[in-house]
Amino acid sequence: LDLPPDEACAGTTVSKRSLQLVGGAMKAALDAVRAATVARLVPLVPPSHGPSYSKGIPRAEPWSRRRFMASCSSCTESSTHTSNHREGSRARQTTVGKPITLSGVGLHSGVTTTLTVLPEAAGTGRYFVVDHGSRIEASASRVVDTRLCTVLASEDMESKVMTVEHLLSALEGIGIGNARLELTGGPEVPLLDGSSKNWVEELERAKVVAAVAGGKEVGSEDDAVFALHPDKPITVYEGDAFVSCIPATECRLTYGIDFPHLPPIGARWFSWEPANSSYTTHVAPARTFTDEAQIEQLRSMGLIKGGSLENALVCNAKEWINPPLRFDDEPCRHKLLDLIGDLALMGRNGSCGLPVAHIVAYKAGHTLHTRMATALLEECGHTWRKVEA
Asked: Is the pTM of this model over 0.85?
């Protein structure tokens, strides 16, 4: 298609031209939405590749109820928490129950850093402080680079933080909307094992608890939760890669990848719905991955200095170099993990960022993920609604 270059990176409503661009993949995604709306099931994936999500997952409470409810003292697993609060109680903002700290090497810098997640008051949101420098809001407006990772900068541009997506994905995935993220030793968040698994494990040990607004009691209007309800389709795209947002009654994410030059990865689709599938079990363990043939090129560019077989999956045209995989579609699940982390940048004033919509991504990356976040905030920013329990 002969598309004007300026349109390739813009957030626009879906038009005939953009539907032609996304082609068969988009049609399959739209068919999935129709089927899921009728059956109220996890969205279907293109039948040529078969479903790659786990079956037999018990239904939980609707997304708008379960994702933002504060933990009770009797709750033992925050990622699959269904509230024990009385019917009719209002959803409240959340934070981590106590500080947690993890250290590790940065993927691109190769520098060992330490990050501490600390509780914060309701209405504060999520933000980074690097080596006691300026505050960096975890916001789409603070994105300054998306080459192979998402980089944020403070408003005064004095401080930057790299590779935020795995940590933000963990916070978003288990519903923590308020947190101070203190990073020392360098500007890059520790990679750990290349997934969000370690972050989630530590955060769940610390518990997800109700966040209290400064000087207020739990249950005051200052700790109310809001969610974005997009009221029109939006697509951002570049070449044949795209991210589309389709209005829906619950949050669903669907991701498609295609690596024809790497048969071990191949073409796969994965769908995830927070109300029906545990982030901790089905998304968080998925590790980052790379093509063995690109490693030297990336290192010559000053990237992946901290990458190793212990924190990334590596494959070539014939096989995986460091099996076994945690899921047969682990690379696809990791792309969805990254998408969650980047969409978390839509969070505002202590409310999490995932919209109540079906987000479909195909062959995308951090650039398109964050452009979608920006487009949604710009075009649907009037659709924030209070979340009821």
From this structure: no
